[in-house]
Design goal:
Helix content: under 10%
Shape: elongated
Strand content: over 45%
Largest sheet: 3 strands, mixed
Order of helices and strands: EEEEE
Distance between the termini: 54 Å
Number of strands: 5
Strand order of the largest sheet: 2-1-5
Number of helices: 0
Structural class: mainly beta
Length: 88
């Protein structure tokens, strides 16, 4: 299985419509990728007279993919900043 390691930074604020702090800007940064290796259950697809063999990750839903094609996203850090209004 492939593992994607990400850092998340979110900026929150308050506004008249929603007085509780809520995120309005979320950014994700890809930090590292650990590949799962080649597909262990390739799928043959047919279109007319043409056939092609593709990895199962391109055709099957996640629950039917082989172990090498599944993807796991791991959040390494989550940083939250609150935007405050400058009053003068």
């Amino acid at each position: 299985m492939s593992i994607y390691l990400v850092d998340i930074e979110q900026v929150t604020h308050t506004c008249p419509a929603y007085p509780d702090a809520h995120p309005f800007d979320i950014r994700r940064t890809l930090v590292d990728v650990i590949p799962g290796g080649p597909c262990r259950a390739p799928v043959t697809i047919r279109c007319g007279d043409t056939t092609a063999v593709i990895p199962c990750r391109r055709h099957e839903p996640a629950k039917r993919q082989c172990g090498a094609c599944r993807v796991i996203v791991t959040e390494r850090t989550i940083t939250t900043r609150h935007l405050t209004e400058a009053r003068g």
